[in-house]
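Regression test attached.
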Amino acid sequence: MHDIGVVGTDEMAAELADQLAAHGRKVVTAAGPGPSLAGCDFVFELSDDTGRQAKRSMLEALSGAISPTAVIAVAVDRTSVTDLSAGLDVANRIVGMHWVRRAGGGGVVELVRVEHGAGEPLAAVRAVLDELEIDTIEVNDRPGLLLDTLHLPLLNQAIQALDDGLATAEDLDLAAELGLGHAVGPLAAVDRWGLGSYAERASALFEETGDAWFAPPPVLRRLLQTARTGAPSPALNEGTKHEL
Amino acid sequence: MGQGIALCFAQAGHDVLLRDVSNERVDAGLAGMRQFLERGVARGALSADDAERVIARIKPVTELAALAPCDVVVEAIPEDLDLKQALFAALDDVCAPTTLFHTNTSTLSVASIAAGSRHPGRVAGTHFCNPAPLMRLVEVVPGLRTDPATVERTTGLLRGLGKTPVLARDTPGFIVNFLWVPFENDCIRALEAGRSTPSEMDRAIKAGLGFPMGTFRLLDIVGLDVHRAVSLSLYDQLHDPRFAPPPLVDRMISAGQLGRKSGEGFYSYA
């Protein structure tokens, strides 16, 4: 049995550490890279990646702290794991992880293959997550990975359809919920995401790819700009807002 | 779809005239409905007596003239504008001007279909989901010249059937197909590009996005030929590239991989 390191200070790190321990794994938790991780064969690195430089520095430090054969699974949300690890000693034994848990689904982890990377590190991480009964899917390292590239155009289309008066927000979401069996309709899903966070995510994806289907519809900005300070956050589907 | 819609009305206590072009076809329709009800009885969803009562309300006819006493006529004939317009034109001479004409079209313009009638104000789209007796959603679509009173009568009628009507504009795909078809095409494109496999993607879509079924599983159920037809019809009207069926769809159809009905699609059903 291998020692597994979990680096991170938030709820997700604590949850993962608990799950691993519950499955009989010996877990080493750490707030940051340090000698306690030296004996680990796997290290899950779960810090936020909003600051790319900070994340890269974290990886550099981790590189120095762990064994030369240890595999790193690093949480990514906005950055390319290939870019993050380029030139580092760990570049050939690192895998990206992106959690996607929307609207009633149990959740899935996108496991990101480093470009031109070998398959073994990913298979090893996948095996560990399989033990925890966490659903995973292997994806290539490209903007939006896989699920966001499929989901965002659908959500954007629904938002634009609302702005174009195709139907009321309630009817749009009801159509998706009853007609397609979606746990939550697209507008309510964006409301749960948070209009601001969603618009940022969509903008970033649009900027990286130039693909118009990712661009956030203008109505989002209008809603965010007209929201008064101190007023509750604007919602696309006011009808389901109380469930947020 | 016609069978399912007829059942919705019959189950709600309405007398139904089921019309098709020949005795063979209308008998086959009735048989299909009987089978559906029998499956319901086997599941314990309704009693055998109830099933008999429902079937007894349905009268098979072949002559259009037999529809003269109808308050509502619902057409679920093939997705062909000429055919639908011709049907409504013929029914103009049979039914009262106040009879509602409902079209179950999924991809054609309700306004265009309504133009077949001299009284377009009484025409509305009522797009049911499949299977109609089990799916509550109906998209109600007023055409350009549909009377507000028609919309009101229609939504009231549908609520009486236990349905949940939503109001959509008369644009290609209305709401459900408009959102879903391009998403399906995007999934097929991702597969074509080698980004993942059908089973991996289906699992991730369900677990990650909270959708009830994986896209490829659903496409196999609907049938790739049906998907292609719907997708192309929407693309022809919208000229939005996301609505174009990807090349893989044609290749699979040519290879006989239509989905469940041909024993093979994205998955095998041997």
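Expected vs. actual: identical. Residues 34 and 52 of chain B are 9 Å apart (CA to CA).
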